[in-house]
Amino acid sequence: MKKILIASSALVAVTFAGQAQASEPIKLSVGGYMNQWAGYADQEVGDRNNAFQSDTEIHFKGSTILDNGIEVGAVVELEGETSSDQVDEQYLYINGNFGRIEMGKNDSAADSMQIVAPAVGPVGINDGDLDIWVNAYLIDTTIPTGDQNRVTYFTPSLGGFRAGVSFADDSNRNGATEVGGSTSYNNTNGSGDNIVSGALEYTGDFNGISLGVSAIGENWGEGNLVGGGLNVGFGNFTVGGSYSHTDDDYGFSEGSSDPDDTDQFDIGVSYEMDAAAVSLTYGYAEYGNGSRGDGTGEISTADLGLAYTLGAGVAWKSSVFWFDDEVDGAEDNDGYGVVTGFALTF
Question: Which pLDDT value is given to residue 242?
Fold first, then answer.
């Protein structure tokens, strides 16, 4: 029996080795984006931030198709400007009729599958760049756990439905520190809670009306985050929004070590015609994990976004934004700003 097992193992190894040799070797391609913005912001609290902002990433991607039809690939994203980890995301993926598996440092399933309100400008409302230009809480109805070592599985799309689930064994992330501490992510020791993330989405088209719906959830230790989003497209218009609720014991807080519940949403509409697009988006948050005062307060913000495609991979974008951030235990801040510039993709 032992000889039979050894012979069988050798046969399997030779079979897979033959498949690997028959497939094309992985060759990396280079892509990414570069955003260069110029703007002016006026606010009640704090000095005016820099007049120029940059956001650049270089992406290295490669894949191969095995003889059994399964695709295996890799993605490495290099930050153009960073004060911490030079590599943003890096992960391996496997695609097949069974769905998609990702392993490495990447966003969670809930983060990547959440649907939010349409916005075409450079500032935006949801997980945008508001806190780069002014001192304000940043609305984010997606999951703020960042890129960290995890495994994620996405099902195939069945009748428009698709599900995803992720598991991470460390609550730290690139350049982050623990709540109430100073231990940085070290890629080795898991010093936090296990993170389980899940999402379900539906996309469909009904006589020219497109529909996108998402439901997300994430458990981090003793805390939970739940939310969802909806987008409806008809003609050149898209209308939609999103919402999320975070329990006070979720444990992700830049301010208070015992944050209150956080509820936040965004809603907006966009119109696209040929190379031009315009959007108007509003967001609101009653937050318990802010970064000023005792970390609680509420914010309202609006953004008028403009975008015009000048050519392949070249777009001119602008935003006119307003915000009102009322912070408990600190001076309220409000103001406005104008940002314009170019977005390149390659």
Answer: 98
List all residues 6 or more positions away from 178 whose beta carbon is below 8 Å from its beta carbon.
Answer: 171, 172, 191, 192
Range(s) of the domain holding residue 329: 28-58+108-167+194-345
Q: Provide the number of structural domains found in the chain.
A: 1
The answer to whether 284 and 300 have CB atoms below 8 angstroms apart is: yes
Per-residue pLDDT reduced to its tens digit, 158-183: 999 999 999 987 545 544 444 444 44
Q: 115 near 214, Cβ under 8 Å?
A: yes
In a domain, 126, yes or no: yes
pTM for the whole structure: 0.83
Domain-located, residue 23: no
pLDDT tens column, 63-106: 999 999 999 999 999 988 766 667 788 999 999 999 999 999 88
> Which residues 6+ apart lie within 8 Å of 34 measured at CB?
54, 55, 56, 80, 343, 344, 346
- Domain CATH for 216: 2.40.160
Does residue 72 belong to any structural domain of this protein? no
